[in-house]
Amino acid sequence: MMGGDSRVVLTVLLLLQGLGGEGIEFGGDGGDFGGDYSKLSGIIIPGFASTQLRAWSILDCPYSPLDFNPLDLVWLDTTKLLSAVNCWLKCILLDPYNQTDHPECKSRPDSGLSAITELDPGYITGPLSSVWKEWIKWCIEFGIEANAIIAVPYDWRLSPTMLEERDLYFHKLKLTFETALKLRGGPSIVFAHSLGNNVFRYFLEWLKLEIAPKHYFEWLDQHIHAYFAVGAPLLGAPDTIKAILSGSTFGLPISEGTARVMCNSFGSSMWMMPLSKYCRGEDVYWKHFSKGNGGVHHSYRCSEQEPRSNYSGWPTYIANIEVPLVHAGYEAYPSLSEVTHENLTSMECGLPTQLSFSARETSDGTFFKAIENYDPDGKRLSYQLHRLYHSDPVLNPLTPWDRPPIKTVFCIYGTDLKTEVGYYFAPSGKPYPDNWIITDVIYEIEGSLISRSGNLVDGDPGIASGDETVPYHSLSWCKSWLGPKVNITRAPQAEHDGSDVQIDMNVENNREEDIVPNMTRSQRGKYITYYEDSESIPGKRTAVWELDKETS
């Protein structure tokens, strides 16, 4: 969910674009709308679990006075969750193989701004589940027109290909941009948060196959003026692995085992898997327009830097897992025969043996293959990964994202908070779904790696830490979108007289390495560090904003 400070930043950005007001021009020639920024629209693509889901069934719940009727809230109604959890699960779970609904209950995403403001409206639950409510309230207070803000909710349980196959989501999103242009006379500004950035990326690739190549960039320039990526997990997030193996409750009153069953039924759970920046899929045009396009399969190629890099470029291994290995050796377990010897510890004929997996090995299926003999979900997860991602007809979403072909791109995220980057798992001795426990967690914090007990850990920490949910390595990937020379400005977040503003102009940007500002920080204050193109691609502008000690 979105923190309050991030909403403030987005509101300022929205006002800068002048939705419904005079506006401030920040680059480009103004396009066909003649620089009249009051004609712009704002389109919001919410994040994971940030859209209300409503029942589209009649479900009688035994032993509970509360039933589910059409249009009743499913995500999120904590009252029904507490009083009729088995009924609630029927309405929220999907079949892990074909992503269909439970035979007795189906849920669909709500529509409009109300679908993304509060997930569980109410005196107590409303403020706890508020997502975009305050942001929209501020827009109203500043005079933004009602038709200038458009939400595009989606069923965040589905993989990208299923969003289109079941709901025609990307067709509808294309129509939304075209309707906004016709209604207000100007292009739109996209505000995407968390998983919403992955959704927008997929839309841009899907659009390539819907529009003739010579008209693709023309359509983008006509319909999208700028893109704001907020808290974007551009290279994934390790807590996806934690949710898949041990469950993530979202703060709900359910057990981790129940949360794991729920998470692993969703095709979208793998959409934010950690991935290597050195491995890419084949080009979408080559796949669709070359000869022999039978079954869709994205070849997955890694550069020579992948085997040379530690941990696929991440700070540490994403997953370390203990598995029982008998004296016969790992050959007794076919799924482990493909796991490299380097992943095994030096224990000989002992119990247990620890396997370690990098980001590449989590996203390419090695990890799930390795646990197939130890976990009932292993084969299902391998199936989902292959069918819904590696064989996606548009692109393999588990590959690094190049700069989107939008005129102006802002990438905004929080930094320097304690963020999980790796996990140690061991068998719990309990039956599925509680068969794994987390024995240790590795965190990044301000350039260091520490364990759950507070001890320093070896690895390759970055210059900063993440936003509490997504590590810095993933959030800051958009720095690679900047031009060859960058202007850097660091300023206090609070009101200031300008004496503490630091500026460094025309800094060389080697895209293979992170940009490290030669600047200082006061221990008493929080700063915003701005990275902006000094030299950029003609007609394009990119900016990255890092906010100290803020969630995104």
Describe it.
The chain is α/β, with parallel strands linked by helices and 552 residues long. It has a domain at 4-8 and 38-237 and 402-413 and 472-548. Helix content is 27%, strand content 20%. It has 18 helices and 19 strands. A 9-stranded mixed beta sheet has the order 5-1-6-7-12-19-18-16-17, sandwiched between helices. A 5-stranded mixed beta sheet has the order 11-10-13-14-15. Helix 1 (4-17) packs parallel to helix 6 (133-141) and helix 11 (239-246) crosses helix 12. It comes from Cucurbita moschata. Keywords: Signal. This is Phospholipid--sterol O-acyltransferase isoform X3.
Shape designation: globular
Mean pLDDT over the residues:
85
Number of DSSP strands? 19
Strand content: 15-25%
Helical content stands at 25-40%
Poorly predicted sequence stretches spanning 5 or more consecutive residues: 1-9, 11-18, 20-31, 285-297, 326-342, 344-349
Class based on secondary structure composition and strand pairing: alpha/beta
